[in-house]
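Worked problem 6 (solution included).
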Amino acid sequence: MIGRGGRRPLGRLPVAIYYDEDVRKRWEPQNPDLFRMPDGLPERARLTSYLKEYFGPARGAAIDSGVGRKVCCSPPIIRYQGDIVETAMGREPIGRDDVTDLLYINYKMPDYTGHVYNMLSIQEKIAIAAVDRELSRLLGLLQSRFAPGEFA
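Solution. The predicted structure is:
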């Protein structure tokens, strides 16, 4: 997620985040000197709940326990990314002023899944289906917030 019309409206940096799976195991600003976290993230317990629902109770905290890359390719992570987008859409001033905003979302998981499992694996199909659901969700958010022609 990135962008806000102007250089630094109201003195605030634009939002750009990623999930640091290798070191901190949490969402981080892309470059803290240039970008910031959005105003609030969904609770981490929500992600843990999604993981438990998908993998079962034993692996519910898998993302924190170092199980690693295979968990990061899973639908719970993709769904939680959608939660982050939805929360940011509700809390950030996207489209609220007379400036042009840019909302850029990289649904990285299908590419990542191909590297971890192989692009011909069933996991790839599962990741693509999960991203399709999130794209539909994003379209619904945009349609509820903006009139036709106010977003592309």
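Discussion: The radius of gyration is 16 Å.
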